Amino acid sequence: MLIGATQEFKKDALSQSEFVKELKNRSYNLAPTLWDNSTVHAITCGYRAQSQRVNLGRVPMIGQLHNKDWIFSGLSNRGLLHHGIYGEKLVDMILVSYNNENECAITKQYPHLNWWKKKFT
Known about the structure:
The chain is α+β, with helices and mostly antiparallel strands. 39% of the residues lie in helices and 12% in strands.
């Protein structure tokens, strides 16, 4: 089983034992048998993308990054609303790119979704 959490705005990272204790405190009631009868196999970390706040609120990052990589992140607390709509748009973008069209239809229809490209290109 994979269990994860976000550690935000702390000056120093938790040690491995502190991190396991924190995860156990947060998730024990969901899976007590797992915690009582298992051991932690590995601890990994990553970064969370934060989207930019515009007049529409936080807008997700969606689109092609470089030649073969795609990004769909930064959904923020509206992810439940955005995931289906923008997930479908991402599929459209990928299919359009495989058909070798020059510009994705989503870029024309939703230009505000490309705000993040200016920062990475």
